[in-house]
């Protein structure tokens, strides 16, 4: 089956066509992403209204390019999938409404995809792994451990009680006067800095839970920056390196505990840790996670970075996984700004 996937929940306008064969093997036929970085650059962050307008301006063209690059016509599709939440509601509405129109015009099923489920199932698209597995989602809006038991079957084990990890990178970058998105900027400068110069706090880490807290750490970084002002290039690099070391240690410590819990609660199951979301691009965090996974005897899977950040292929794939199980959504399905993975309506609905 061939599924068109549309992603518009944040600042990427994306469309992709993915083919899933009867044995569950996936082929990405096309994957087109248009980032809105330039539109939002003057504001130092994503402006929801601007994002929605940019999706309106570009989505039709991005879908046409996805079809052309896959070499197929829209009427050769078996279903149309779009992110229906969570995300910036204006943007979600643009993508979901477009998907509804295409599905109605073609007379093909519509699949309303949870954006977090799309991130969660990406490792099956790229690595073909079986259920169950443990996912660490670390993105611009989320930081959570999720037990992935099956399509639509998720159990959240921990989440952030304040900022997401990507958000923390972005805020630290902003307060140091670096560009947006901040993650790659911080990582670049960190490579030139001393990771031991500053001792930043690790909020919540002593508590026996799988949650994160990054806002106090961000404040500590701000105070250190204020104390050192005016900052030399070396000061900035040292702050970036120390911040990155601290979050890598936090994430690795939590991953160790999550893998321990997994081993206890799912005895006999292979230990697999899948990383999803844009922060998966960070090499220092990746290395810390690899060490934690190796020590626990677990396999670490980090999909290729373009599939970790927002893209249409993960949405098309999540749609294909649902369709293969007979699920589809009615044309009046609602867009949702909030939609946790473990909410009751994540299960499979049948027949539009
Ligand atoms: P969500 O999926 O939660 O709605 P999102 O889709 O906006 O959020 P992603 O596109 O998955 O998030 O990831 C973007 C985030 O990843 C940004 O916060 C960015 O700073 C961060 N990021 C990207 N590259 C790196 C890196 N090399 N190191 C650290 N963080 C990074
Ligand atoms: Mg983004
Ligand atoms: Fe995302």
UniProtKB/TrEMBL annotation:
GO MF annotation terms: iron ion binding; tRNA N(6)-L-threonylcarbamoyladenine synthase activity
Gcp-like domain residues: 27-317
Cellular component GO terms, alphabetical: cytoplasm
Keywords: Acyltransferase, Cytoplasm, Iron, Metal-binding, Transferase, tRNA processing
Catalytically driven reaction(s): L-threonylcarbamoyladenylate + adenosine(37) in tRNA = N(6)-L-threonylcarbamoyladenosine(37) in tRNA + AMP + H(+)
Family annotation (Pfam families): TsaD
Binding residue positions for substrate: 137-141, 170, 183, 187, 282
InterPro entries on file: ATPase_NBD (IPR043129), Gcp-like_dom (IPR000905), KAE1/TsaD (IPR017861), Peptidase_M22_CS (IPR017860), TsaD (IPR022450)
Cofactor(s) named in the record: Fe(2+)
Cofactor details (free text): Binds 1 Fe(2+) ion per subunit.
Enzyme Commission number, as recorded: 2.3.1.234
GO term, biological process aspect, one: tRNA threonylcarbamoyladenosine modification
EC top class, as a word: transferase
UniProt cross-references to Gene3D superfamilies, sorted A to Z: 3.30.420.40
Main location, first listed in the record: cytoplasm
Subcellular location: Cytoplasm
Sites where the protein binds Fe cation: 115, 119, 310
Family: Belongs to the KAE1 / TsaD family.
Listed PANTHER family: TRNA N6-ADENOSINE THREONYLCARBAMOYLTRANSFERASE (PTHR11735), TRNA N6-ADENOSINE THREONYLCARBAMOYLTRANSFERASE, MITOCHONDRIAL (PTHR11735:SF6)
NCBIfam families registered for this protein in UniProt: gcp_kae1 (TIGR00329), T6A_TsaD_YgjD (TIGR03723)
Primary role: Required for the formation of a threonylcarbamoyl group on adenosine at position 37 (t(6)A37) in tRNAs that read codons beginning with adenine. Is involved in the transfer of the threonylcarbamoyl moiety of threonylcarbamoyl-AMP (TC-AMP) to the N6 group of A37, together with TsaE and TsaB. TsaD likely plays a direct catalytic role in this reaction.
Protein known as: tRNA N6-adenosine threonylcarbamoyltransferase
Lineage: Bacteria, Pseudomonadati, Pseudomonadota, Alphaproteobacteria, Hyphomicrobiales
Name of encoding gene: tsaD
